[in-house]
Write a structure and sequence with these properties.
The chain has nine helices and 16 strands. Helix 3 runs parallel beside helix 8, helix 5 packs parallel to helix 6 and helix 8 crosses helix 9. The two termini are 35 Å apart. Bound molecules: glutamic acid (GLU).
């Protein structure tokens, strides 16, 4: 019996259509899931794929409501639906956030694989069909179990926790800067080099069943000459958490530091991440996190730090516990 794989299509460039095979202008989220599958007839040799048009959006539209609905659907399929794995087609823009969110809230060891494309489905040398074929192959592979949510793009397998989009348009636009890819997949033949080390899915305590919203968390991008009233505005708007994409090792100017202290005084949880794009933001390096009551983002960049902070704030506002989450998940 072939593995049963559910395909949840959410849109993105992998379902994009252009006027001509070489046109730069195109519409993402235009082609139905069944047509994406029809482009890879050989996939039936890998798995019995059940196709569902979950959404049809560019991934810049992803928000808490869509994430919560997607998590509920994936959990339902894996826990009660009898499928062996799930493949999700997604836009590339926010794939890293959706993937990390699912990595924390899916409660199953079964493979959950996100895939995407940089070129629309109608493009000359479209990358979507082989990416989708490879994603189904990885979902059907027994070694993919227990590895958390994975992303398959451009013949590579990445942990959803690690992957980031690093280029606006080029084919080779994804990497896992802190840890590297976990494997490769060549015309459906998957090979793993590493297993993700951080706790995920069933080992993570985050549950979102029945939730309709998550706490508001904003991200501010630090830069030379940044104005502190932006921080005050975020507090005034009712954010429960603030991720500061600091310069270098999560640093900020003295004026921003004073504004972050004001935010703390209003009970906003402040997480220091970095705009640098890779590396670790450590506690108490140039800034005294203990004295200011800040959380250091550890390995997470700002977008993923925001995802984890939302989920952590849903359970607790205890700073030590939130810091533990950043060092564990
Ligand atoms: N902005 C669209 C999205 O993220 C298209 C980009 C893409 O998928 O590559 O869905």
């Amino acid at each position: 019996m072939k593995p049963r794989i559910a395909l949840l299509a959410t849109g993105g460039t992998i379902a994009g259509a252009a006027e001509a095979p070489t046109a730069a202008h195109y519409r993402s989220a235009a082609i139905p899931a069944q047509e994406l599958l029809a482009a890879i007839p050989k996939v039936t040799e890998l798995a019995a794929v059940e196709c569902e048009q979950f959404a049809q959006v560019g991934s810049q539209q992803m928000d808490d409501a869509l994430w919560l609905r997607l998590a509920a659907r994936v959990n339902a399929l894996l826990v009660a639906g009898g499928v062996d794995g799930v493949v999700i087609t997604h836009g590339t823009d926010t794939l890293e956030e959706t993937g990390y969110f699912l990595n924390l809230v899916v409660k199953s060891e079964a493979p959950v694989i996100l895939t995407a494309a940089m070129r629309p489905a109608t493009a000359l040398s479209a990358d979507g069909p082989l990416n989708l074929y490879n994603a189904v192959a990885v979902a059907a592979h027994p070694a993919s179990r227990g590895k958390g949510v994975l992303v398959v793009v451009d013949d590579e397998i990445h942990s959803a926790r690690e992957i980031v989009k690093t280029n606006t348009t080029e084919l080779d636009s994804f990497s896992s800067p802190n840890t590297g890819r976990v494997g490769i997949v060549t015309y459906g033949a998957a090979r793993f080099f590493h297993a993700p080390v951080r706790a995920h899915t069933a080992q993570a305590p985050f549950r979102v069943d029945g939730l309709e919203r998550l706490p508001r968390v904003d991200v501010l991008f630090a830069h030379a000459g940044m104005e502190p009233d932006l921080v005050d505005a975020v507090v005034g708007l009712g954010a429960k958490g603030l991720v500061i994409a600091g310069v270098g090792n999560g640093n900020v100017s003295d004026r921003i530091l004073a504004a972050l202290d004001r935010a703390r005084a209003h009970g906003v949880v402040v997480v220091r991440s970095s705009r640098a794009g890779s590396g670790i933001v450590g506690r108490n390096v140039e800034l005294d996190d203990d004295a200011h009551g800040f959380v250091a983002a550890d390995e997470l960049g700002p977008a993923k730090a925001r995802v984890l902070l939302k989920l952590a704030l849903n359970h607790t506002t205890d700073l030590a516990e939130i810091q533990r989450c950043f060092c564990t998940y």
